[in-house]
Design goal:
With about 450 residues, the protein is of the alpha/beta class. The chain is built from eight helices and 23 strands. α7 crosses α8. The mean pLDDT is about 95.
Length: about 450
């Protein structure tokens, strides 16, 4: 947006004899104590003519740079303001073949946009003098630069260069891939902005290096979603169940369920159907009855249906004659109030559900510090968890979410918090798992 203004600033800097055209090659400037530029005293008119030649494409890449006459500590070179780059720009096309550097644009764009404070991480501390020098040399408004420590998160990389490599290598899909920690990625995954702000406030501002586990951020997400994300029921790995003592109905029975069961009196409510055919999670049924810790449906154990007011008892396991795999379960339902002994557990279920796609995410990297050569000798790409994304194409969700919009968040009971993905289309919802209901220590 400011290429024209920045170019005019560069011309002004040359006219003030505070910048010059230099022909030192990059290889000459490597190592300790590189030689000073022999062109530092070049006449103003000569630098202006060469700068125009750079802009007109008459000089090749690497043949010349515009450098600023900033007096820095001994052994430091004058910083580069402009380089030649024979490449089109995604906003300006082929208008320019010279491009300004960060050192040149940072303070000037801040000034043009009336920024009050430029908040930087500590590695920019050494550039503060250049920031102030350039604004003062051009006699423009000068913002304040403050530096603080970057908040680092384990099991990820935040370098733009490294994220670009992950994208080019097709390890992640794009900058908003929910496995990344860019803001667009966190939003797509379903992290509320309030949760991120709460997390940052909890960590506080400091100049000391800080590294935190992503579980701390996820805990803030749970705290917010627990009181903002309405409940729904979803079955990720369904098994079909027929209630044999329930007649086929022309219209289904509807059950009223609060969006927030912890406060049913003050909660909004939604309706879900209950028909003879329901679906439950495959992991909520076991044919083996020897596991005394398993509290869900078995041939010898009934289980309650969440919100329905019924418990179900297994009558028969029906198998596919060709494969021997379970085709469906036949059960008998019992009103809860008729039972002498209440069920040990209640499970979620769906009836007349929507078929949706669900994407489950794990950590993208296997080690806490994927950029540490001591921990990951092969480099961060070698540490990628290639199974960090699982796509379920036939998950089932109750009809209360039918008109959900992208970024809308839900808590799927007993499963986790989920957000509607931007890939969703009419009739085909896609959900990203934001976080599980429990943290890594198993706590809600």
């Amino acid at each position: 947006d400011y290429f024209d203004e920045l170019y005019a600033f560069a011309v002004t800097l040359i006219k003030k004899d505070l910048a010059y055209i230099c022909h030192q090659r990059p290889e000459e400037l490597k190592g300790f104590n590189p030689p000073p530029s022999p062109w530092r005293t070049r006449p103003i008119e000569e630098s202006l003519a060469l700068f125009e030649a750079m802009k007109s494409g008459k000089l090749a890449e690497g043949e010349a740079t515009l450098r600023m006459k900033i007096t820095l500590e001994e052994g430091k070179q004058d910083p580069v303001a402009y380089r030649i780059k024979m490449a089109a720009h995604h906003r300006t096309g082929n208008k320019w073949c010279i491009y300004p550097t960060y050192d040149f644009t940072h303070c000037l764009v801040d000034s043009l946009e009336n920024i009050t404070h430029s908040l930087c991480t500590k590695e920019f501390q050494t550039r503060r003098s250049a920031y102030y020098w350039l604004c003062n040399s051009l006699d423009v408004y000068c913002p304040v630069q403050w530096e603080y420590s970057r908040l680092n998160v384990n099991y990820t990389v935040v370098s733009k260069r490294k994220i670009a490599k992950l994208i080019s290598e097709r390890i992640v899909d794009d900058w908003d891939d929910p496995r990344l920690f860019t803001l667009t990625a966190l939003r797509r995954r379903g992290f509320p902005s309030l949760a991120i702000n709460n997390f940052c406030a909890l960590m506080g501002l400091t100049v000391a290096s800080a590294v935190v586990d992503p579980a701390m951020l996820e805990a803030s997400v749970r705290d917010v979603l627990n009181v903002t994300a309405p409940r729904a029921m979803a079955v990720l790995s369904p098994i079909r169940v027929l209630i044999t003592n329930m007649a086929n109905q022309i219209t289904p029975t509807y059950i009223e369920i609060p969006d927030f069961p912890s406060d049913p009196a003050n909660s909004a409510k939604h309706m879900v159907p209950l028909e003879k055919e329901i679906f439950i999670e495959r992991e909520d049924f076991k044919e083996d009855t020897t596991d005394s810790n398993f509290r869900r449906l078995t041939p010898k154990q009934i289980v309650g249906l969440r919100h329905a007011g019924y418990a179900i008892e297994l009558k028969e396991v029906v198998r596919d004659p060709a494969t021997g795999e379970i085709d469906h379960l036949e059960v008998i339902r019992h009103p809860i109030e008729s039972l002498k002994t209440k069920p040990k557990a209640f499970i979620h279920w769906v009836s007349v559900p929507l078929t949706v796609e669900v994407r489950l995410y794990e950590r993208l990297f296997n080690h806490k510090n994927p950029e540490d050569p001591n921990e990951v000798p092969g480099g961060f790409l070698s540490d990628c968890n290639l199974d960090s994304k699982t796509t379920l194409t036939n998950a089932l969700v109750d009809v209360s979410v039918k008109y959900a919009q992208p970024f809308q968040q839900f808590q799927f009971e007993r499963v986790g918090f989920f957000s509607v993905d931007t890939d969703s289309r009419i009739g085909k919802l896609v959900f990203n798992r934001t976080v599980s209901l429990k943290d890594s220590a198993g706590k809600n």
